[in-house]
Structure to design on (399 residues):
């Protein structure tokens, strides 16, 4: 089939999608439709000769239905099709020949109020932007399953809603936009627990190093864990004293350890880690903002929403270096002398964990792509009340 047929079929799919909201993988669908029709995957720019009676689409505006009005625009990396009194626009923003952005008018007022973006150019939608009553909202698919996980509903640049378990239902919401969740669905039943009554929540202030008690069930341990995490982020937002922040963070670590001890959900590999450990590399993560590293390339990513990263650092109001990842502590040893036989193939936390990285210890991390890396702290400098500059050395498992 020709380019015209492909564009019209894409339009049909798009209209159904944005009216019925049945499939968030809109970029993925657009790309696959073109592939299945035998198209070259571009958004326009070259003339296609048809073997049937279909008209030929020239660069620029085309009148495809013969009514004397332009219906379809074909350009270099861009195409537009009339729909709902406005247009559906597809773009190839990075020039790789594949659609990576779709803009539509969901209200029929002539304004393109919704955008589906493939921000990491992997062929799938991972960012949504929607404008309603003059307010733009944003959402991101962090785990690549086609369902938004994090939301900025008021467009202030801060996340205010979260889907923690990836089922498409918001589990935590910050209703007053102060940076801290106010409503929580701890049991993932679709109802915020604050509206159900008779909910047992263990506030962090009830515990101390001497009096900390780990609940005997996973549900209460999870509530305690989330409450402790929220307390730490609240103190960070309020710029509380370091002593108070350190105490809250230490309580958070105990709550997290308690929850993980009651959770059977860990990742594992069917066989032992094989290969060799590569040469030593170094990378510095500066938490003036958030920073993350992708070990396979050594790339440091400062804004990593929706992107696969392996180890990250955020502004924690503590004195010591803390990193987030899927890692385990191998103990005190030299990074240069560690062998691949000492890298475990199982026992890594399934959820991202955070903790203090101790000098002289070596840690093994299970990366986003399923590979393994060992790393160790090189230096740490506290550059502000909550910001850090952390340098680590690492070796990737190769082969």
């Amino acid at each position: 089939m020709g380019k015209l047929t492909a564009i019209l079929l894409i339009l049909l799919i798009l209209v159904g999608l944005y009216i019925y909201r049945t499939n968030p993988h809109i970029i993925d669908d657009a790309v696959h439709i073109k592939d299945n029709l035998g198209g070259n995957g571009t958004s326009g720019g070259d003339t296609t000769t048809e073997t049937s009676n279909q008209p030929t689409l020239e660069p620029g505006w085309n009148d495809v239905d013969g009514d004397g009005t332009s219906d379809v625009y074909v350009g270099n990396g861009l195409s537009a099709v009339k729909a709902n009194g406005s247009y559906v626009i597809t773009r190839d923003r990075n020039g790789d020949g594949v659609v990576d952005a779709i803009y539509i008018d969901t209200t029929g007022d002539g304004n393109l109020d919704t955008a589906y973006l493939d921000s990491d150019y992997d062929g799938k939608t991972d960012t949504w932007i929607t404008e309603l009553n003059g307010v733009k909202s944003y959402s991101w698919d962090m785990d690549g399953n086609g369902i938004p996980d994090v939301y900025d509903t008021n467009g202030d640049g801060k996340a205010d809603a979260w889907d923690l378990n990836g089922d498409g239902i918001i589990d935590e919401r910050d209703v007053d936009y102060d940076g801290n969740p106010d409503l929580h669905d701890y049991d993932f039943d679709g109802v915020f627990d604050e509206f159900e009554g008779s909910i047992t929540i263990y506030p962090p202030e009830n515990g101390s190093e001497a009096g900390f008690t780990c609940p005997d069930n996973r549900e209460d341990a999870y509530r305690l864990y989330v409450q402790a995490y929220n307390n730490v982020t609240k103190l960070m937002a309020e710029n509380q004293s370091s002593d108070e922040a350190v105490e809250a963070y230490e309580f958070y670590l105990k709550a997290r350890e308690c929850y993980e001890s009651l959770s059977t959900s860990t990742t594992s590999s069917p066989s032992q880690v094989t290969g060799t450990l590569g040469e030593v590399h170094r990378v510095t993560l500066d938490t003036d903002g958030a920073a993350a590293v992708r070990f396979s390339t050594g790339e440091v990513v400062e804004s990593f929403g929706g992107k696969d990263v392996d180890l990250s650092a955020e502004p924690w109001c503590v004195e010591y270096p803390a990193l987030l990842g899927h890692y385990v502590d191998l103990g005190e040893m030299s990074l240069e002398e560690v062998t691949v036989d000492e890298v475990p193939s199982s026992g890594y936390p399934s959820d991202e964990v955070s903790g203090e990285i101790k000098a002289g210890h070596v840690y093994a991390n299970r990366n986003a792509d399923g590979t393994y890396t060992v790393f160790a702290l090189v230096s740490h400098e506290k550059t502000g009340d909550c910001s850090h500059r952390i340098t680590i050395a690492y070796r990737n498992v190769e082969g």
User: Anything to note?
Assistant: The chain has four helices and 25 strands. The mean pLDDT is 75.
